[in-house]
Amino acid sequence: MGNAGNAPGGEGVVDRMLRVLDCFTEDEPELTAAELAERTGLASSTLHRLLAQLVSLRLLARAPGHRYTIGVRLWELGELSPLSLQLRETALPHMMRLYEATGENVHLAVLHGATPETSVALFVGRVTGRASIATLSRMGGRGPLHATGVGKALLSTRDDEWLEEYFRAPRERETVHTVIAEAALRADIAQARSRGYAVTREEMTLGNISVAAPLGAVEGLPPIAIGLVVHLDRADERRLGPLVVQAARDLQEDLRRR
């Protein structure tokens, strides 16, 4: 499938297909053709041709009520990514050990974004259980770097030039406790570097604390962090910090051997 049939503005078929696929979100996993037309701004005839192609390629699937969902082929292709084949498969035993030691949510995330200003923490793995608290994260979901434990751990791996560009973009206040001021956030990053792990306290979700540690660089993979999300009432940073640091070291060593 090429980029043939370019629109006057230079947008090709692939670009338009991506515009359609990008409309689907965790909150709106099913959309009608009318909703897709409104979100993409594509002409009805163009959109319906694209939808037919996407369905035939199994990139989209039809759902009840004349709605569309993401197709299974995207999942099949996504499972071929190094984030799945190399990182998540290797990380799962380490994540399970960390869960067994704590009984808390374990998150695995990577740095994702075309530029520092647009970068986020992309969640690529998660282990949870009945006793774990509910969290907003999901595999394939994104979280702000400044307000999540894994995000702040990832920030601690960036150099001064990268951070200068990152701080040009505004940061949203997720809760009343979210650290958004540059000076305060830089202080948190410096502290994370000195002790080996980052901490966020009720910055993404009220009542929750996150403790996360970054991995060292692994060839072929983006920057990685592993962390825990714990309820405020049972968060013992002095115990959890060394556990996530050790998990990060063990995973890093395992990844570098492969």
UniProtKB/TrEMBL annotation:
UniProt-listed GO biological process terms: glycerol metabolic process; negative regulation of DNA-templated transcription
Coiled coil: none
One Gene Ontology term of the molecular function aspect: DNA binding
Pfam families: HTH_IclR (PF09339), IclR_C (PF01614)
Occurrences of domain IclR-ED (ranges): 73-258
Keywords from the named record: DNA-binding, Glycerol metabolism, Transcription, Transcription regulation
Residue ranges occupied by any HTH iclR-type domain in the UniProt entry: 11-72
Role this protein plays: May be an activator protein for the gylABX operon.
Protein's name in the database: Glycerol operon regulatory protein
Upper taxonomic lineage: Bacteria, Bacillati, Actinomycetota, Actinomycetes, Micrococcales
